DNA sequence: TGTGATGTTGAATG
DNA sequence: GCATTCAACATCAC
């Protein structure tokens, strides 16, 4: 479930389990998700390195190594971390595993293999290369409003564009639109200035709130945001409107028809 | 059995 | 070059 708040939890999990440890060697079971070198070269590059710090930006998690290079983890749709020591705790979908010198292991699991794992010599150059926008927890409303000017695409397409703002994913984008009472399919040039300000404000609030409330890795409360209303046919707030499912910006989209302006 | 899924990319189009 | 759209990626769960 990796959108920004989830990756924030991955970061915490990673820090608590793996920071300061030294990689004795790496087992690559499937190098499909390693995007910039073959499995053996990847394993070779990490061998003997100590993990000294971590940095999250949007949905990207960078693990800084003691040679100044980085191990980049992007979790795709189904990426996950699994820290363990007993071999029987190895996950079914483990794609590679860092074996630390203390005997513990950090497995990277990913059933669908949409994750993107890279060994980077220059983290900043990579961020520049993919034009990754600023982190959603690190911007203000003015920045977002300014980015909206002149754009004609859907609200949802805007929120999902990681080059504008990094961290918002499909579920949180719906949540933000719901809070603004705006249909995700509305186009930016159809919004009033007030609505643009509201959209910017809610984007920051939702992402900040979700990141702050994430209690612990894999332990999301049932009453979190979209859980409350992300059900087709469900009656909207105060009995107004009804939840419908549609497709916006190529993604499955839920909104409350009759409650959110179209 | 067919369908859709939390994300990104690269090609195609305007 | 920029903005936007959309299919493709690989596999599993329902």
Question: Can you characterise this structure?
Answer:
The longest helix has 21 residues, at 193-213. The chain has 262 residues and is α+β, with helices and mostly antiparallel strands. The model has no long low-confidence stretch (mean pLDDT 91). The strands form 3 sheets. The protein has a 4-stranded antiparallel sheet with strand order 1-6-7-5, with helices on one face. It has 2 domains: 4-129, N-terminal domain of MutM-like DNA repair proteins (Alpha-Beta Barrel); 141-225, Helicase, Ruva Protein, domain 3 (Orthogonal Bundle), CATH 1.10.8. Helix 1 (4-18) runs parallel beside helix 7 and helix 6 (170-180) packs across helix 7 (193-213). 29% of the residues lie in helices and 23% in strands. It has helices at residues 4-18, 39-46, 123-129, 141-148, 155-160, 170-180, 193-213, and strands at 23-28, 51-57, 60-65, 70-74, 80-84, 94-100, 105-109, 116-120, 242-248, 251-257. It has 7 helices and 10 strands. The structure holds a DNA duplex (14 and 14 nucleotides).
């Amino acid at each position: 479930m990796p959108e920004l708040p989830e990756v924030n939890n991955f970061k915490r999990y990673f820090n608590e389990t793996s920071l300061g440890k030294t990689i004795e060697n790496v087992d690559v079971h499937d190098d499909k998700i390693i995007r910039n070198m073959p499995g053996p070269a990847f394993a070779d590059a990490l061998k003997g390195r100590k993990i000294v710090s971590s940095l999250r930006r949007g949905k990207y998690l960078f693990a800084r190594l003691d040679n100044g290079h980085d191990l980049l983890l992007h979790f795709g749709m189904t990426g996950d971390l699994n820290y363990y020591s007993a071999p029987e705790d190895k996950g079914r979908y483990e794609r590679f595993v860092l074996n630390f010198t203390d005997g513990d292991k950090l497995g990277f699991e990913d059933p669908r293999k949409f994750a993107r794992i890279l060994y980077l010599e220059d983290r900043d150059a990579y961020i520049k290369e993919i034009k990754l926008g600023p982190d959603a927890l690190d911007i203000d409303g003015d920045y977002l409003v300014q980015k909206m000017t002149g754009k004609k695409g859907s609200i949802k397409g805007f929120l999902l564009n990681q080059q504008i703002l990094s961290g918002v994913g499909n579920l949180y984008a719906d949540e933000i639109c719901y809070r603004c009472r705006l249909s995700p399919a509305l186009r930016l040039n159809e919004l009033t200035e007030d609505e643009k300000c509201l959209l910017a404000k809610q984007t920051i609030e939702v992402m900040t709130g979700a990141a702050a409330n994430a209690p612990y890795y894999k332990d999301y409360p049932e009453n979190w945001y979209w859980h409350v209303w992300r059900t087709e046919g469900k009656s909207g707030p105060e009995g107004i409107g009804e939840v419908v499912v549609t497709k916006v910006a190529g993604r499955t989209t839920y909104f409350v028809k009759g409650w959110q302006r179209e």
